[in-house]
TrEMBL record:
The keyword NADP applies. This is NAD(P)/FAD-dependent oxidoreductase. SUPFAM superfamilies: FAD/NAD(P)-binding domain. Its cofactor is FAD. InterPro entries: FAD-binding_Monooxygenases, FAD/NAD-bd_sf, FAD/NAD-binding_dom. PANTHER family: L-ORNITHINE N(5)-MONOOXYGENASE-RELATED.
Length: 540
């Protein structure tokens, strides 16, 4: 229920934060304690950002819970996840815990989707309007819209004709949906498709998975955590959090300091076995340091993954579709996901795979899905078709800067954002976890806190220096884009059509959307800018 009261007067704030996920809540807490007047506008009815919207069966985080939280001891000391990789319900419990400690909700306006913001160059403020008409003015707008707040629904003919429930994973009904005894179709095999399929396979009468590109899913090695495990975890938490800042991806592990090709075959095999057994993203972000750069090195990792995966699938035809002899793309350049029994469910009689490369979807009918060779009836269709990632949540808002252009128009030919945090022509607009920042390559809470702190420090600096306006220069954002392009050049990332490069959205310019230099290098760049009186920005 929307309990927001209609306000008549336009509220004036120092900072309006958009989004109540990890990033937005950190901004609210830090800025409020520093005496800024600050509020969050949140489109959902509850806390959690991505964890509010993605409440589909099986939704869970691909990072270990111990490090998928704020690094603050006052928050982690008396909170425990019951599983190594917690599910969405537990994440919501975590956000409630944080809210209980920090009393955040009182400054959050829920059910409030920002539709537009216009910069007033005389007053140096933004006027921000929500879809319900509620309006505020704020000196700064900090967008914490996350990487995945704009679901992508492909233009499949007849999708709106289907008579039964048809939901995107990122817009899942809050009241839930029971798969028991139902004929379920899942379109898409990214991380969301894998997770929802694992769950549906348990209870659905039939589960049909429509695959276009095979995912390279890695073993999660999920564990239930008891009191002894919690106590052990707590002992290492401070060290684990301290290590995040030195690692490429904001985790407590990093790439090995050696090439897959410089070691003996035996050592390579032993290393892969160890990473495989440890589970999680270690086989991806904790592996030899050239796997994402060198095709021959990557081939060794892919062959290991393929053989391990195929061994679990009884039907050789299915094995070839799910883990092909020849890789669809190098391992890890499209985001892998973590799986618990994804490859095993294909040995069940109720689970089927449709290979969309052979038989594409032609249309959705009132009762099911028609492909080029057959028509099947379904009770439920799940669209696990991903997101207009990284930029979509930002460009969904009509943001109008100093020259009358919207940000959507400006970025229609590609993203430019200095340090991934601000863009020329849009003063006092800052992004946390935005494009050209480590974002999708970085553990979410790490980025929310560490990049978030840099933004807080910048706003503090502005206030202390009596300044009212900060804007990235065109030269700096072009140079930053070129830096991103240079960094990604020697890697294998361009060899996959992934959301990392915008290739999952028809018409979206193809460019690396994330900062591929790793968190430490990103932070060095920030520190250099800050120490040079915020070079790359104009402050006034
Ligand atoms: O989306 P995706 P996702 N017809 O873009 C297919 C994070 N995440 O929601 O690969 C048929 O990865 C598409 O096919 P193809 C995580 O960062 C995290 O799964 O383009 N199929 C693909 O298989 C992840 O990377 C967790 O050929 C179509 C799928 O849909 C990101 O979110 C959990 C199609 C989309 O996969 C996105 O994951 C879940 C069409 N027209 C997600 N269009 C955590 O654990 C698209 N597809 C934290």
């Amino acid at each position: 229920m929307n309990t927001n009261t209609p306000d008549t007067a336009v509220e004036e704030l120092d900072v309006l934060v958009v989004g109540a996920g990890f990033a937005g809540l950190h901004q609210l807490d830090r800025l409020r304690k520093l005496g800024f007047s600050v509020k969050i506008f949140e489109a959902g009815a509850g806390l959690g950002g991505i964890w509010y919207w993605n409440c589909y069966p099986g939704a869970r985080v691909d990072s270990e819970g111990a490090i998928y939280q704020y690094a603050r001891e006052d928050l982690w000391r008396d909170f425990d996840y019951t599983e190594l990789y917690p599910g969405w319900q537990e994440l919501r419990r975590y956000f409630e815990h944080v809210d209980g400690k920090l009393d955040l909700s009182r400054d959050i306006r829920f059910d409030t989707r920002v539709e537009s913001a216009v910069f007033d160059a005389d007053a140096n403020t933004w006027t921000v309007r929500a879809t319900d008409g509620h309006t505020v003015t704020a000196r700064y707008v900090v967008l914490c819209t996350g990487f995945g707040s704009k679901p992508y629904i492909p233009p499949i003919d007849g999708l709106d004709r289907f008579d039964g429930p048809c939901h995107h994973t990122g817009l899942w009904p809050q009241e839930g949906l029971d798969f028991t005894g139902k004929r379920v179709a899942v379109i898409g095999t990214g991380a969301s498709g894998v997770q929802v399929a694992q769950e549906a396979a348990k209870d659905a009468a039939s589960l049909t998975i429509f695959q276009r590109t095979p995912i390279q899913a890695l073993p999660m090695r999920q564990k239930q955590l008891d009191a002894a495990a919690h106590s052990d975890l707590k002992k290492g938490m401070s060290d684990r959090f301290a290590r995040r800042i030195d690692s490429f991806s904001g985790f407590d592990f990093d790439f090995l300091p050696k090439s897959a090709l410089e070691v003996s075959e035996e050592e390579r095999r032993e290393t892969y076995e160890k990473l495989w057994e440890e589970g999680g993203f270690r086989f991806w972000l904790g592996t030899f340091n050239d796997v994402l750069f060198d095709q021959a090195a990557n081939d060794t990792a892919y062959a290991f993954w393929r053989d391990k995966t195929r061994a679990r699938i009884a039907d050789p035809v299915l094995a070839e579709k799910l883990a092909p002899e020849v890789a669809a793309h190098p391992l890890g350049v499209k985001r892998p996901s973590l799986e618990q029994n994804f490859y095993d469910i294909f040995n069940q009689d109720n689970v089927h795979l449709v290979d969309l490369r052979e038989t594409p979807i032609e249309s959705v009918t009132e009762t099911g899905i028609r492909t080029s060779d057959t028509e099947q009836e379904f009770d439920i269709i799940v669209l696990a078709t991903g997101f207009d990632a990284s930029t979509g949540g930002i460009t969904a808002i009509d943001l109008e800067g100093t020259d009358g252009q919207t940000l959507r128009e400006k970025w229609s030919e590609g993203v430019r954002a200095h340090l991934g945090v601000a863009t020329a022509g849009f003063p006092n607009l800052l992004f946390v976890y935005g494009p050209h920042s480590p974002s999708g390559f970085c553990n979410g809470p790490t980025c929310a806190e560490i990049q978030g702190d840099l933004i807080v420090e910048t706003l503090e600096h502005m206030r202390e220096a009596g300044l009212q306006r900060i804007e990235a220069t065109a030269e700096a954002e072009n140079a930053w884009r070129d830096h991103v392009t240079e960094l990604v050049g020697p890697t294998l990332f361009d060899k996959a059509n992934s959301w990392y490069v915008g290739a999952n959205i028809p018409g979206k310019p193809r460019q690396m959307l994330l900062y591929p230099g790793g968190l430490p290098q990103y932070l060095d760049n920030w520190r250099r800018s800050a120490s040079e009186s915020y070079s790359g920005f104009v402050l006034s």
